[in-house]
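FIELD: query
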Amino acid sequence: MSDHLRTALSLAGASVPVLPLRAGKVPFGNCAACADGACGGRPHMKSAGTCRCPRPCHGWAAATTDPAVITSGDWAPMWRTAAAVAYHPGGAGLTVVDLDDAQAVAWARETLPATRTVPTTRGEHWIYRGVMRSVNAVRDGVDIKSTMAYARWLGPGTGIVTAVPDAVRALAVKNAHTVRTAPFAVTVPAPIEGGECRHRTPAYLERGIAMAEQRITDARSQVHATVYRTFLAVLSAHGRCGCLTDSHVARLFTAAQAKGESPRHCTDAWTNARTRLGL
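FIELD: result
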């Protein structure tokens, strides 16, 4: 039995949902079609890319405490090559404040109440009791990982786990209304050769984009999945005639980032939607 598998079973026995990570801190796919990311699926979705798995196949959604799954024939090859063990903080009733550098750690020590801390490669994980929305880049070098996210297991750490402070929850609320303007690359599909635009008026496209923005904004749960499905719907309706512009796509990305999605996740969802539609 590998050390990673032994750690995973120990965590599962303590009701902490676990999953293996391959090199680069990336989740494995849990079926042959998704091995090494071959399906192109995003780590939180069970049906992205070409994957048609009957159960959640990637990332936090596949994290489990079931030893039968952890030691199953599907997972066994992963543990032999795994680079690390990850866990789903929200599934364990926890929130991780991921401090990525010394400056972020200094901020936390001045601002946040003491709790259990775990050293990382460049900073620290501060682990609190309680569940909340996961949000990336709430400030420089600081991510919040709880629901719909995974974190590397780096050891038990030191200190007593305390309740999620209002200061951390406030960061998530603040960033729900603050769109990060990090650059992203989007390739807008070109018109199909010889095709004609089927939109009756420019207002048809505008109404579709506005409805898509609203759908993302109104999401109260499963934000990742909602963003992907919305991108898929927009591309299904408007992706083959060449009417979509960078401005339209930027509006969708802006709405998604306002709900806590990172620019990278937006780009991944857009790319996966295009791949699924053959664009």
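FIELD: remark
Confidence is low (pLDDT under 50) at residues 40-50, 177-195.
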